Amino acid sequence: MIAAVVLAAGASTRFGSPKQRVLLPRVLERLRRSSVDDIVVVLGAHDVDTGARTVRCDEWERGPGASLRCGLAALGEDVEAAVVVLADGPDLDPRAVDRVIDAWRTGDDSRVAAAYGGVRLHPLVLARHVWGQTPDVGLRDLPAKLVPCDDLSPPGDVDFADET
C-alpha cells in the first residue's frame, strides 16, 4: 500500500490568509487521480476542512520534518511507502506521482523524488524503513534518486496570493 502525506501545517504568513483553503483542494484532486491508496493531510497552524483524512501536528512550528513525522505516524502498518507532497503545489501532476512510485517499486532506493530540469522537487517517495530519519528541517538535504519529469508540469510553490 502506498499513501500520500500532504504537508499543510504552515502559517501562510506571506500569503496573508490560510492558503491551504485555496490550494489544497487542487492538490487533493490531483492526488486522487494518481495511484496512491490513501491520503492524509497534516494540519497545524490552521484548521481547514479538507474532505480528506487529517492529522493535527502540534509541533508544526519546528519545521516541515516535524509535520512529516506526524503524517507518517498516522499511516497504517500496511503502508510500504509514503508519497510526500506540499499543499502549496497546486499544479502537481498525477503522472509525476505515479512515475516516482513506479521508480521506487522497480528500484532499490529508499528515497525517490521528481526532478524538473534537473531540480529536485515534489513528489517524493519514502520507503517505510527511512521514516525515522526525518530531521525537523525536512528532507531536502538528504539524498534521493531523481526521476526526470521534464515533460510534466512542476507542482509549483505558491507563497503569495497573487501567484494563484
List descriptors:
3 helices, 164 residues, Spore Coat Polysaccharide Biosynthesis Protein SpsA, Chain A, seven-stranded mixed beta sheet
* Proportion of beta-strand residues: 25-35%
What composes the largest sheet? 7 strands, mixed
Rg result: 14 Å
CATH superfamily: Spore Coat Polysaccharide Biosynthesis Protein SpsA, Chain A
CATH architecture: Alpha-Beta Complex
Q: How is the CATH topology named?
A: Spore Coat Polysaccharide Biosynthesis Protein SpsA, Chain A
Spatial strand arrangement across the major sheet: 3-2-1-4-6-5-7
Kindly state the mean pLDDT as a whole number?
87
Structural class: alpha/beta
How many domains, in number, for the residues? 1
SSE blueprint:
Elements: E1 2-8, H1 19-32, E2 38-43, E3 53-56, H2 64-73, E4 81-86, H3 94-106, E5 111-116, E6 119-127, E7 145-148
Parallel strand pairs: 1-2, 1-4, 2-3, 5-7
Antiparallel strand pairs: 4-6, 5-6
Quick recap of the structure?
The protein is built from three helices and seven strands, in the order βαββαβαβββ. It is an alpha/beta fold and about 160 residues long.
What does this 3D model show about the protein?
This protein has 164 residues and is α/β, with parallel strands linked by helices. The chain has one domain (2-156): Spore Coat Polysaccharide Biosynthesis Protein SpsA, Chain A. The protein contains three helices and seven strands. It has helices at 19-32, 64-73, 94-106, and strands at 2-8, 38-43, 53-56, 81-86, 111-116, 119-127, 145-148. The protein has a seven-stranded mixed β-sheet with strand order 3-2-1-4-6-5-7, with helices on both faces. Helix 1 (19-32) links the parallel strand 1 (2-8) and strand 2.
